[in-house]
Amino acid sequence: MKRRITNAEVLYNGTLQKLEILFDETGILRVAETIDCEECEVIDAHGYAVLPGLIDVHVHLREPGFEAKETIATGSAAAAHGGFTTIFAMPNLNPFPDCAETMKPYLEKIRTDAVVNVLPYGTITKGEKGAEVSDMAAMNELGIRWFSDDGVGVENDAIMEKAQKEVKRLDALMACHTEDMNYRRPGASVHESGYAAQKGWLGIPSECESEQLKRDLKLAEQTGLRYHGCHISAKQSVEALREAKANGADVSAEVTAHHLLLEEDDVKGPNWKMNPPLRSHEDRMSLIEALEDGTLDFIASDHAPHTYADKDKPMAQAAFGIISLETSFPLLYTEFVKRQKRWTLPQLVEWMSTKPAKRFGLENKGVIREGAASDLIIVNLDTETVIHADQFASKGRNTPFDGWTVNCEITETICGGKTVYQKN
Ligand SMILES: [Zn+2]
Predict the structure, then answer these.
(1) Distance, CA 347 to ligand 1 centroid (Å)?
(2) Centre of ligand 1 from the C-alpha of residue 256, in Å
(3) Residue range(s) in the chain whose domain bears CATH number 2.30.40.10
(4) Quick one: which of 67, 62, 77, 58 has its CA closest to 116?
């Protein structure tokens, strides 16, 4: 079935232009000022912007194993609601997708339940225990080209080196949550600072992230693999990445919306608790500048749903993580494009679609042009709406942004030519 979007401002060749798009399930067929197509279905965009579907390389869908928090169905519906048409699912699950036997049924469940493109990571080590490298070659044969032990760092130097060499051999990509547990005391919940001390909360110093990242980056310079740093939060990590890139390492890194928007003294309770934590003003400014100068490559959500009970605890015991698929784009657009006028819309789309697509090897995604995938979103950029956590498609309600006003609303999400979300 051919479909045609009319009355739209299409992000095309880096600017918004009055264009029409003709597409079907196989891809975008034409982009032009006017398109004649009598038999096709017409989608009236009401003058709104049409952007390439957003791409998020860091999502926790919690299934299999933690279906009370989220499922592939609810998490991918949340993605569609937030404008994401391709998401990468982290493997800290039960069972872990760490070999062909567990990966196969997981892939099958994704095929039947997901409403957007879901690409799963395999683990770096068996059971994310850090003791033995997982069977990446067997997973690679099933099409898995991305590996991560997200949730924990790979502590042992020799295991990390062995894993990097295997990822390099497979021409795959390794995405790392770096965390040296020697720096994290039991019960630590927020950034280590005067504010944390005042509140009586145990802090996590920046070195917890940056020291292991430095180890990984040094190794990456030698092994030559494609390495990706997850949810960079600290200034010291930015400096390490800048140096590794200058040395020619094939490394990239992501930053989350919440680390770009919030700081340590915004923390009011468990819905502001995530790992890595919200850090200082200086850290946040260094992240924004690093994104702008290319040291940080793009934005990811680290969508981490939890049940109410997981969060309804004192800071030391509450689960780490917040949900963000349904808020990241509207929040970042509102703050940095609309209010501060610091970024342009095409820049934000580069960081939330084009660049992650390129780095993760999705050749026909992240851009609107003839031949690209029919992954498109229609967005009202001139509105005022309030974020209500109880209206999320996600099972999670754990967000610090409940009640925030945004000037951006996704009105329709099209994935593979089909509408997978539409505003009522
Ligand atoms: Zn992580």
Answers:
(1) 25
(2) 11
(3) 3-49+373-422
(4) 77
Q: Is there a contact between 404 and 372 (Cβ–Cβ < 8 Å)?
A: no
Q: Give the β-pairing of 405-406 and 385-386.
A: antiparallel
CATH topology for 53-359 is: TIM Barrel (3.20.20)
Parts of the chain belonging to CATH 3.20.20.140 = 53-359
Q: In whole angstroms, what is the distance from residue 176 CA to residue 92 CA?
A: 13
Name the residue with tokens 């697509």.
357
Fold of 3-49+373-422: Urease, subunit C; domain 1 (2.30.40)
CA of 108 to the centre of ligand 1 (A): 25
Instruction: pLDDT tens for the chain, 424 residues: list them.
Output: 899 999 999 999 999 999 999 999 999 999 999 999 889 999 999 999 999 999 999 999 999 999 999 999 999 999 999 999 999 999 999 999 999 999 999 999 999 999 999 999 999 999 999 999 999 999 999 999 999 999 999 999 999 999 999 999 999 999 999 999 999 999 999 999 999 999 999 999 999 999 999 999 999 999 999 999 999 999 999 999 999 999 999 999 999 999 999 999 999 999 999 999 999 999 999 999 999 999 999 999 999 999 999 999 999 999 999 999 999 999 999 999 999 999 999 999 999 999 999 999 999 999 999 999 999 999 999 999 999 999 999 999 999 999 999 999 999 999 999 999 999 8
Active site residue 302: yes
Distance from Cα 302 to the centre of ligand 1, integer Å = 7
Instruction: For 270-287, give one letter per residue: b (16+ CB within 10 A) or e.
Output: bbbbbbbbbbbeebbebb
The region that residue 273 occupies, defined by phi over 0 for left and psi between -120 and 50 for alpha, beta otherwise, is beta
Query: How many angstroms is it from 151 CA to the middle of ligand 1?
Result: 4
State how far the Cα of 266 lies from the Cα of 261, in Å rounded to an integer: 10
Q: How far is the CA of 306 from the centre of ligand 1 (A)?
A: 14
Phi, psi at residue 379, to the nearest 5°? Answer: -130, 125
- Tell me the C-alpha distance between 393 and 87, whole Å: 15
CA–CA gap between residue 191 and residue 196 (Å, rounded): 7
Matching residue, tokens 């590794």: 244
Catalytic residue among 149, 150, 302, 375: 302
Residues with CB under 5 Å of ion ligand 1 are: 150, 177
